[in-house]
Amino acid sequence: MTAGGLAAPGARAVLCGTGSHVHGSELPDLPSVDTTLDDLRRTLIDVCGMDPGRVVRVPADAGAAEVVDAVEEASAAGGGPVLFSFVGHGLLGPRDDLYLATRATRSARHLARSVSYRTVRDLLGAGGNGSLVVLDCCFSGRGGTPPSEGGARRAFASAAPRGSFLLSSASHYALSFAPEGEPHTLFTGRLLGLLHEGDPAGPPLLSADRLHAALDEAFADDPRVDPARRSEGTLGSLVLARNRAYPPHPIGSGTAERPADLPCPYPGLEPYRAEDSAHFFGREELTDRLIERIEEMPDGGQAVLVGASGAGKSSLLRAGLLAGREDRTTSPGPALLLPAPGPHPFRTLAEAWAGATGRDAGEVRAELERGRFPAPSRGRPVCRLLVVDQFEEIFTRCDTPDERAAFVSLLTGDGPGPRPRIVLGLRADHYGSCLEHPGLRRALARAQFTVPPLHERELRAIVERPAAAVGMTVEPGLTDLLLHDLRAGRSANDTATALPFLAHSLRETWRGRSGAVLTLAGYRATGGIWQSVATATRRVYESLDDDGRTMMRRLLLCLVHLPPDGGGAVLRHRVPFGALPSGSDTIRDQLAGERLLTVDQDTAQIAHEALLRAWPLLREWIQEDAAVLLLRQQLGTAAGEWEAAGRDAAFLYRGSRLQAAAELDDQEELSEPEREFLAAGQAAATSELRRERRRTTLLKRALAAVAVALCLALVAAVVAVRQQRSAERQQRVATARALLAEANGLGTSDPRTALRLGLAAYALRPGADARRSLFDTLAGSAFRGVSEVPVTTTADPVLAPGGEMLATRDEDGLTVWDTGRDPVPRTPLARLACPRPKDDRGDSVAFGGPGGRMLAAVCGDGEVRLWNLADSSKGDRPRPLAALRAQRTKAAPAGPTALAVSPDGVTVAAIGWSRHVRGAVVLWDVSDPRAPRQLPFTEATWPPRGSMHGDRAVFSPDGRLLATADTHGDLRLWDVSDPRSPRPRGTVEDAGGALAFRPDGELLAVSRDRVVELVDIRDPGDPKVLDERTAHRDLVSSLDFSPDGRRLASAGWDRSVALWDVTDPRDMADEARLYGHSGFVHTTRFGANGRSLVSAAYGEVIHRDLSDVHPPRVLDVLPDGGELALAPDGTTLAVARGARIGLWDLSDPSAPRRLAELDNPVEDRYATVDGGFTIGTGDVLDDIDFSFDGTLLAAMNHDREVTLWDVRDPARPRVAGTVSGAHQGAVNPTLDFAPGRPLLAVNDLANVSVWDVSDPALPALTASTTPTYLRDVVFAPDGRRLLLVGTGLSLWDLSTDRTTPLSGDTHFYGGGARAAFSRHGDVVAAVASVPTADERPEVRVDLWDAGKDGAGHAPGATEPMDTYRARFAQLSFHPDGRLLAGAGRDGTVRLWSVADPERPHLAYSFSGHREGVDEVVLGGPHGRTMITTSAGLAYVADLGAYPETAADTLGMACRAAGGGLTREEWEEQVPEAEFVRSCPAEP
């Protein structure tokens, strides 16, 4: 049974009725009634999961008063819904009211001793906890539903369901039936059958609504019963029981089913409500601590819940705190929730408090403003807890400082009279605002409660447990994919505040469910966690026509509030329906249906700030209309003041204020008072202003007509070109697309085949889509090649530490392969004589010793042979160092079953010798291999459960511990610091699988069937399991830690290798899942550098580059991020903002180290009121750059003053010189150093000058030019030409002083974008604005060939993008010229692979920024680093192997796949096309 519904802890039931009546009664006996009610009670307990103590069976001989008492007691108890069931005679009284017969009822005419159903109904309605009524009696259709508002109780927050539900056996005046001789009445008997046996056609959970539908179907052909229902509120969806007849959907069957009729347990962008607490998981510990904190507070005490937007504060307050208090018997009384203070917090609180206390709102407000919380009216409960959510609104929406201060004093003071305990929910970014108020400072100091980020275990609970609560299952792999997507390419802050995105993507996944299963396909259809909100919003937007889209824009902007102080937009801002644009109702309802808006009876608001982060178009609208929004808000305030002043003309707008307001000429956007206010002001305006408006409007229309004509002409030209394609080309395109579709479908599950099909597609049709398919497969799978290794037996292969060697066994011996090379050479390193033992089980082959170059194996009849393979690479045939036999072992015919060699190569351990009795541990000292010594024999002494069958053994890195494990038993630790007397230490139960020590020896990874556990062994005598995860769908076969101990690799029989982040061993996180093997994966090892991985199955070895496991991700965040410059060696980074420049050492990009912080010289400095200072606008830095040798750093400010810093010692920079000019006050001037030459180009947007700075103290002007329009200047790689970027591109040759157009008439996007010149080759990238037929220009990046002959042409371009989504502040090439980055104003950095300039393709979209990206540079010490700036911060990100993959995508794909399709494979895979070589080196 689920935790909600009738199984909820507070749910109660009252069952009443009688089968017989007093002597002389005219009512006939109904013997089946008593049996029916007794069985119903058992069913409610056994099937529905109700608490037996809360199911009341009113005695059959009870009178009317006892029935009423039972109903009244259940209703007053609260805490959950109340089920009332009556079976028996129903009677009609005055006004045809329904009465329920008792045993004392004498006839249908004598009703004095019967129960008035009206009384029962009113009592149930007064409780306010939701009620479900089942009437099985004649005339039951005359019964109405109990009142659903719950009286005064509904003013308080409660987790109890709202509403009421009536299920009756008859409609209106119809009779009911109790067949003679049957154990149950006809109606309730069928109801019991449905609860016990289930409904084959129903959903997994039976709700009240579904029960009625099933009963209606059951009695469709039976005229004796006519089931009827009436419902108010949400009680119809109340879960009664699991449907025992529901057929489970076979997970992973691949067949989609019709979505099951199940409630959605995920709230989307809205917070969980108190009544949603049955679906609220992941915050149980935090909820308990919060409730305990509140219960410990005295009356009148305050606590502040602080958390970032998107961390789940509102859900924690509602579904956690408010719902959790009701489950505790010590709850101090009802609680009142104030969802948000609003612009007038006193009025908002007064209205809510008046509803709870039954007092007049005006009277309540007056009391509150005097600092007192009014007592409730007589008979009303006392509010013991006040929760104020979104408390930050007193700073963002309350514009009156006096009201704000008074409201804070009310909540934090100690005014007269009783006071509730108070909990405030505060967004963390308004923490500083609270510190300005003494009362809030005290509250924060006394009881601040922080909402921390969720751990992986809690995130899994958020995904999986709500689904289980409503009877759904989650397809295997979906949770792992969700958690991977949650972190991929995101900063830790984004991940910590991503709950709205996660909940929305889960809700969208629920919409695409298959039967009762949340599927991977359903999730992928949402676009992923970070795109699901944008996908849903875009779905609504794109479903509308042009007028609808305009209306949607007006509606959403109406729901946005901009603080007058210039702060960020406030979205959760309730707006009355009357203030919304006229005619927006349909779109409003559409957005509410998508859970993007929250709508109540008379107001609407955007569901969460996440919409602003997720949908760039809304951000664009807000930025474009910011001035209009502020004007509109000011207009609304002015109109209110005008109305309050009796429409005094002195309050009307005049002059410039009226002119600004008059631009809001679309009257439908204004409310009626605003219209009248504006009309009154306009009536006094001059006719000249009206004429100016008309001229402006006509000009706009004319320009729009010209733009439309231009777009239509361009579209016509594109269509004409497309029509010239030949039929032959279309066939090749179709075949290539089919191959690409198949390759993309295989993706990372079979990377080798995917690569070979992608190569074939590229051979047929070279293009960006084929290159991207190859790139994505390489980047997403880490696959770098598979090698075949001949095997003749089924013995498990064994890899050496570091993955350098592989040992396989055949009947006669061992073969050692060189797996340190890719591909693995077909000639083995060595063949070793070692007959296969008769009972080859466990780890009978083991590598160890220094560098893992020693090999031990059990041979023949149990002899252990030892080899040194250190010189095997020279081709020498290794000989055994020693042959070891155990002496003095008992019951020895089975021989050893597992071996281990100590890291120093001095000790060999063997375990086993018996499969039926206690095993043995034998140690040999092989420090002198010519004379090995067996150390004292140790026999196992632990109970039979722990007896060793000897399957696994491994030494700790320092050789002082030995771990032994049995597949069918436990793990045992041994202290072998003195090998002559090993001592047994602690055990771990049920951990008898694979073993691996972390390099520091403090942590041990173990497996149990499909589960991996992390064990703390710092105290070997008391090992503790820190965390565990289900790692594979089949047996875990191998474990290995990375050299730095931060990663764990697990291999499994499900043909996969899993990577785990074990930085926090208490919360191991699934990092990646690697596929490609055709059979069970038996062993896996990290490379010595930790960046590679080798895995082996029967007959095959796969090499992987783990740099590709992660997509680009943020490593660190630096302060003061505005302008960027990276020194040529990639290790020194300059970050500037204002006049401050920070120099950072990027030798280790994961831990940047500050070298120096310098202040650029300034001319204007102004004191501020807080004792600080600010600089003049002209002193703000606009661009910085390093010289070609990294010895100079040039910094240029608004006034085009260039300061040259000597940074030969970056820890001690000094001013070396300056360059000044006459053009001051330029907006965004730029500069650029020449590659290989001491030249500096300075662009002040009016003039370009080139300076020789070989002597920084005396810069010399060498050339200058004055273009007509200029945005940027960039030196060519030869250092002799300068790219001039304006509306077009041109090259200025400094040696001839001649300027040559490069781009012709192409017009580039003029929003501040800069072009980029590849440092290798003559490729120029520039952002172009491309007109389209629908008048909305698209953006793309054109790649130009800037050959030295001066004849430029554009060989390729990226795919066009919508200008609303892509506006670029900067372009930047990777130093090798194969990867291009674009810094987007939408907060996304797009990376393109441009190794083939004719076929560029998008490689990755890095969306880890909340605001627009200002700068981006690529490079770093290993060429794998990207640095960006956004919102005043600099982000250092790891690109992984993306640069290498982009540089040689085709070659890498050919090497990894082992070549393209052979001629025979081509004929099978591509019969419709002639054979084409896929890889250049193939014959």
Automatic annotation (TrEMBL):
Protein name (record): Novel STAND NTPase 1 domain-containing protein
Annotated spans, Disordered: 973-992
Signal sequence region: none
Stored InterPro entries: nSTAND1, P-loop_NTPase, WD40/YVTN_repeat-like_dom_sf, WD40_repeat_CS, WD40_repeat_dom_sf, WD40_rpt, WD_LIS1/nudF_dynein_reg
Domain Novel STAND NTPase: 265-649
Classification via SMART domains: WD40
Pfam families tied to this protein: nSTAND1, WD40
Keyword list, A-Z: Repeat, WD repeat
WD-type repeats, residues: 955-984, 1029-1070, 1174-1215, 1361-1402
Keyword Repeat: yes
Gene3D superfamilies noted in UniProt: 3.40.50.1460, YVTN repeat-like/Quinoprotein amine dehydrogenase
Domain of life of the source: Bacteria
Repeat keyword on record: yes
